[in-house]
User: Fold Battenin from Pipistrellus kuhlii.
Amino acid sequence: MGGSAGSLRRLSDSEGELISQESEEPRPPQDRRGAHWKNVVGFWILGLCNNFSYVVMLSAAHDILSHQKESGNQSHVGPGPHNKSSRFDCNPVSTAAVLLADILPTLVIKLLAPFGLHLLPYSPRVLCSGFCAAGSFILIAFSRSVPVSLCGVVLASISSGLGEVTFLALTAFYPSYFFLLTSPEPQDPGGEEEAERAARQPLISGEDPEAPERKPDSSSGLSLHEKWTVFKGLQYYILPLILVYFAEYFINQGLFELLFFRNTSLNHAQQYRWYQMLYQAGVFASRSSLRCFHIRFTWTLALLQCFNLVFLLLHVWLNFLPSIYLVFLIILYEGLLGGAAYVNTFHNVALETSDEHREFAMTTTCISDTLGISLSGLTALPLHDLLCHLP
Assistant:
């Protein structure tokens, strides 16, 4: 009996070892493909939801400011001009005011993020982002004044900024930009992953390409000197992105309101909403195009966007475009450039940064678009006052 009990115990132990070994075997390729597409869809949904409140606030900027139009607080905007002494149909306050309320809190979050946000776990960050987004819509829906509405815009900005920093930093733990929901596992050497790793060019000079890559657990272990070195290496991507976003948001919040065509069936508010919709459609299409087109030299996109700014500013001043539909095409093209600059910048940073620096690099690069947008809002405010006082 004792011998049989011992043999049963040994059999049980051997079965346990066998089960343990089987559980440690890598998943079959089909399971990995399923996880891949799950991650792709999951990250796409998170990015869409994160930008939703921010985009809605900018698209409704003309209506939010219309609270000042009448004491009755009618949220619609009629076709008649607000400033009859000007050839432009101007609101008393530029839509750039909504832009600043929608971007300055985000700028503060992104400036502080590289220095301590990693200490806060990802789950509380996502919950905070969601609550702020919901609060922004509730506050604006029941608002009776412009200041209260702008407070709702600030909540939307906090939600978008915190979410963007969080989701982009999470991509440091996955083999490509799109992976998110399934926890990352050690990748097999060879194949597409090996080719992509071989194509990476480190942003930090003097980095040994033969040194083993560290698993990117957190950016908290980087010294200030390492962070500064990484930041300097990122300038090739940060500066063009700042320029792209300065130009396009100067157009969006500084010129859209002034691109008013009186010879159409659309009133001013409707024209503004169409401008915003077409811009966002272009952004959406180009941000989803990375698998089809990869642009290495993002400086080209920055120069093209600046040309758009100069061209539309000349039209606002000289009024030489005969039809609003030409402006529609230019704005759609503007959105395509902006979305392409954004997605290709972060893709290039992800490829060309070593594993231990990638989380910090992605978080730091987030500052680029926000800084460009903030500068455009500050510049658009005095331009609005200057042009709206012209006879």
Observations:
- DSSP finds 13 helices and no strands in the chain.
